[in-house]
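ugh ok fine here u go
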Amino acid sequence: MKMWIFLLLLTSAVSLLAQVSDPLAGKKYAVTLYLGKEHDSKQALAFENGNMTFSEAEKYGFTPDTYKWKQKNDSTFTFLSISKSAKNGSMTWEGKVINDHIEGTCIWTRKVENPVNYTFKGSRIDE
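structure:
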């Protein structure tokens, strides 16, 4: 009898863990990138099927790549994604989402130039 209760509790715990869903899944954010304090460009960050991409990714040869996220509290979580391009190096996107607002850094590392360090800020886009 004790074994059945243990298995029932274990099954319930596993079921609850499986229900923890990705808070970024299916969301899109309009962001402005800055070099220092100067406006550089605008991008849209999209989180779909466990991958993150940005609006000009294809133009520069970047493909959607996986991201990791971590819950900080009820309304705040962080994420990290590294996008790669055969021609244009890698872009490391690291950020924080608080409710519908997003901010963070993007480091673009290329073979022939020094890394470019961006900051970004933006908000969620409802489509």
